[in-house]
Structure formats: structure tokens, C-alpha cells
## 1
Amino acid sequence: MSGGVDSAVAAARAVEAGHEVVGVHLALSRMPGTLRTGSRGCCTVEDSMDAQRAANIIGIPYYVWDFSARFKVDVVDDFVAEYAAGRTPNPCMRCNEKIKFAALLEKAIDLGFDAVVTGHYASIATDAEGNKELHRAADWAKDQSYVLGVLTADQINHSMFPLGATPSKAEVRAEAAERGFSVANKPDSYDICFIPDGDTRGWLGERVAPEAGDILDREGNKLGEHAGAVAFTVGQRKGLSIGTPASDGKPRFVLEVRPISNTVVVGPKEALAVKEIAGDFYTWAGLAPTTPEVAFDCHVQIRAHADPVPAIAQVVRDADRVELKIIPAEPLTGVAPGQTAVVYLGTRVLGQCTIDRTVSAVPVSAVPDGAVASEATPGSGA
């Protein structure tokens, strides 16, 4: 129970469905005095008290479990390390993968519970053979199946999402008000929970020593300098501070972040187009394809609120690596290494991979650092 309206209603529905329910709030911050500011942040003291009030109304036991040490290692430290490596991580994916449906579920199973219930907007269905599948929620506008794409078959078997079939968030808020929950109109949290002020660059600057470097165009010409490459991400337009205008007068965007040479590569918006993505860390959400090495039709989604795009995917094996390769029907824009690509079959979540290789859809005459134009470059976003 995060202290929000969704988890409170999910807990109440689980009780009414006949389950024996215990409310658990995860203490993830090592600063117990932290207070929420509007819709920024979560897992604060205020959130814990909101969760307890909801549990009291429902009439279920309530506990606070301290997972702050594991959260720091698996989510916060991973976030810093990924940015330092020139990648753009998704901490919500890591939290679901390592904390809510791993550490929390493991402890719950050890204590004799059958499942973890959350307020995520997603659904679980059972196929003709009895296998459980993860699907999108009924309300696609609030669908959160993307951030659950990291769940494995075993985790799905021990998960419940009571809000999945709810037509809208407005209906959940109305139900919360009817139940007397004080969180009925509480704002949804957004941004990164451990950076509540939203200043990712400033937060990272306190943890990764900034080092000045060059800003280059795709041909390797120096356009300017940056104060530290760690906070740049592929697709970024603002904050480049390039004095020299582009020849066509159009704005430039970050195409690559190269931590080894400490350079940032920029170029026109058209150069953000990517025709192929791949990752060697991939998992299947439920039953895996029978022959994943054979190319299959699917849809791919690369951000939580992005539209799914028709694509072809397959597992490719060679002497050096085994990876999930995805070729969209049309080029994707602004794909950054470290992002997660979630693969769908209709409404079903089939699996995911962390993107570590992309292929540009726009050839260039020369690319610095020894790469060849239009070829796959591990860790490259252009």
C-alpha cells in the first residue's frame, strides 16, 4: 500500500473477493523525515500514514517493511551507474523487477502468503492450457502493463491486479470516496520517487563528478563543450548551450552519449530515427514463444506512455551474444540505450529487453570513435 488511491481500492477489492489480506507499506527512503510535495515523490512519511488510515477503514492488519537498503543498491545505485555509463535507465522497471515483485514477493511467500496485490492498471488472464498471461488494462489511458513487462512467469502466477478491468481512474476515485478513504482525491505521484524535486541533472551531479568534454556533430566536428555528460540523454534538445547554429537553422538534439571519450554527439531531429533495437538482457512475461529464434509479428513499446508500434522480433544467437532483436515497421524516434522495449501480442505482454544496441535509420558519412555509419553499435543511440 503506497499511500495512494489505487492501492487502497485494490486492497479493499481483494478483501471483498474473499482473500485474507494484510496491508504492507514499503519504506524505501533512508530519510524518514521526508514529506511529499504535491504530486512529487512517494513512499514518504505522509504516504505511510495515508496507507495506514486506509487499512484501518478496510479493517486489515498493516505493517511497514523496511526495504531501503535493497532499494538503494538495486534501484538508486543502478540508476547512477547506468547514467555514468551513458545510458538512460527506467527506475520504475528496476523497482518492479527487484523490489515489489522480487524482494517483497519472496518475503511474502516465505511468510505463507499466496500473492502480492498492487494497484497497477494491468490484467492477468488464463489461456486454454491454464497458463497465466499479463495483459493491458481495460483503460488504455492508465494502462501500466509496460512497467510490469519485467515480470516472469512465476511472478505473474503470484500477482493480482484488482484494478485491471476498471474502465477509468475516475471510477476508482469515486469508489475510494464512497469507502471514506482520505486519499480519494490525492494527486498521482510522478517523476522519479527518489528525486522528488525533479532535478535529475542536479541530483546526478552530486553523485557523479562532472567532467568537461566536447559536444560533437555526427562528422566529429567540435561544436562546443559540456560541463558533464552524465545527465544528457538521447533525444534531449534543451541545455546543449551550443553557440554555433546549425547550417539549416533547425535545432539539434542529443544523438549519443559516449562515456569513454566523455563526448556528446548532437544532430538534426531526423537522425534520431532508429530502424532496429536489440538487447541481450531479455525476459518472457509468462509462457515463452515456442520458437523465439523464428521471427514473429508483434508490437513494441519503448516508453510507459508511448504508442505501441508494429514490429518483427526474434532471438538472435551468434558467437558473441544472444539477444532479442526488434525491427519496427517504421523507425522509432529518440531511443536511448538503457530504455526498456516491451513486446506485445495484441493486449498480451510477451516480454521485454533492456536496449543496449540500436541501428540508425539515417546514414552518415562518418561517425567518430571508430564506428561505421548505419551499422549496429553497442551502447549507441545514433
## 2
Amino acid sequence: MSFIKKFIEQEKVNRRDLLLASAYGLGGVAATGLLGTGMARAAIADPTVAWSYRNRTNPYWNEIVGGGEAFVESLGKPKDFLTHLINEGSSEKSLADVKALLSKTNGDLALAIDTNDAPNARPVVEACAAAGAYVSTLWNKTDDLHPWDFGDNYVSHMSWSDEGPAEQTARILLEAIGGKGGVVHLGGIASNNPAIERLNGLKNALKNYPDVELLDAQPADWDTQKAAQVMAGFITRYGDEIKGVHCANDTIGYGVLEALRAEGMDIPIVTYDGNPQAVELVAQERILATVFTNPHWGGGITAALAYHAATGAFKPSDEPHAHREFYGPTIFVTPQDAKEFKANYLDNVPTYDWSDHWGPSNGQIKYQ
């Protein structure tokens, strides 16, 4: 449990362009050049490559950024060539950091980013497109925001189809408690796409289990310490009525396990992300199942898409929609296959061809 304790201790276009012109200190003629969905420009020979993310203390994001570093190393550059924009869960800081870097690089930027929440994606993309930079997003955006509406500058968006996998892990949990009793759900940031989909997955599964009651569902903001606090509150309120726990990600699961340990409770839980520590806990049957989304490949290919578009290696607007909004891969990890999975994906991280932009992807994103 030592790593668990470690975790615990640890804003139409005209207005946009006017604001950007003001932010960059541009006058009337220069500001006019910012109008439109993107700034026409030649390929960028050597763009700054940046990853904007929550923080690296989270194992999932550490793997994402590790993929970004592997990509820049494939260019013959050191890891520290990758610029890190760490927002610590603040959408305001995320946007401010991006605007500052756009100003510093004069738009010579290839940006990979999780915008922290879905509404923040549009102002980030608009700022990049207006500056002539190239951006690829991961996980969070609103359904009405599409790369093809921004020419080449909004290169791509990758997310995962989380409802289905989260429903399957929920079914594993509900079977483990004999299809009877109460369960609780600890989610991510409430406005995050994956947090919404993973809770929906649980609710979908519950439709087939009339004798199981969802006692409560609360956000834990993808955070281990907050998860421990939320779970402790659930235990105080519901006690032994809780027969199982559905967690929106692995790091939430670690906090749940700590809260259960403190109360001497041993009940089944399921998680999501397939982090190394979670896989080990699955192998020990302390977590029933997790879902691996290959963050190393996701982090590397998101940076690669932005970079290769920026340097002119490919033209995003020539690509089909399925290459601009697509699902990433998922693999289920259960006690039966945890050791084999660990050997194949964690102990020996596969070497990826970062010019194969859509190899492991899983089809075009579909909206309900």
C-alpha cells in the first residue's frame, strides 16, 4: 500500500481575433491577418513541441507524457525538447499557458493537449488556429467542436469510447456481489467526457440488475486523496450497505482501497486506465478489473500528429474525418491475464512507429 500513501501525500470569431490581437500587442493591419479559421503559412521547419496536461504525479499522465518524450526522441532530440505545460487541473491556467507559449513561439508550435474540461477546448483551439499553430487534443472537447472546421490547424482529436468498457467492468463488479446489494461510484471531474461516460456505463449495466441499488455517485476529480475522503464519507453514511465500488480511474481506486483498509473492509472494486500499480493489484485480485487505454501510444501519437502536420509531412484537411476524430484502443485486464498483459505492455513498452498515425486506433468517434 506504500504507493497509495504516496499518492495521498502528494471563451464569434471577430471577438476572438480582437482579443488575441490585443493579447499579442498587434495593431490594426497585423490584427487583420489573424482573421479566419487559421493563419495561412508555410510548413514550420522546427516547431516547438509541447504537451499540456494536468500533472505528472498521476501515473496515467506520466505514461501519456512518457509517450510524448518517446516521440521527440524519435526525432533525434532529447526528452527535454518537449515543453511541459502543467495546469494542475485548472482550465484557466491551461488556456493562459497556451496563449503565453503561442506568443513566445510566434505560433511555431505543435501542441498536444488535454484541455482539462470540454468547454476549454474551443478557446484553446481558436487561439492556436488564429496564431497559425497546430494542435491535437486528447480526451476532452464539446461535441460541436470538430477539427475539420479549422482547416489544418486543428489537426485531430482522440478520445476513448468509455461507456462500453465501463459497463463491462460494472458487470464484473455486479456479478461479484451476486447481483444484489448497494454500490457506490466515484467519478472524475464532473464536466470531463470520460467521467460522464464511465458513470453512464455503470448506469447501463444496472438496468439488468434490479436487485442492485446505486447508493451514491460523487466526483473525486481523478484524485487519490479526494477519493479516499469521498469513500470515507460513503462508509460513514452507508456502512455495510456498500457491497462494491465502481471507480472512474485507477488513481481513484487507490484512494478507495486506502479508505476501505482504514475501516477493515474488504469489498470488490473495479477501476479504469490500466496503470502499472493497478495491474499489479488486479494480479493480486485486490482489484477485479481495469481497462488499459495505452496512454504511452496516445501521448506519443497526439504529439506526432500535431508535429507532422506542422512540418508539412501530411495535410490534415486531405484526411477523412475518421483520421481527425478517432477512438483510441482499449484492453481489459483481469486477474486471469494481468501477468501476461504486464509483460507485454508494461515491462516491455512496445516500440511504436510514430508516422503510423492511426494504426492502433479504433474507428471514428460517434456522437449520440
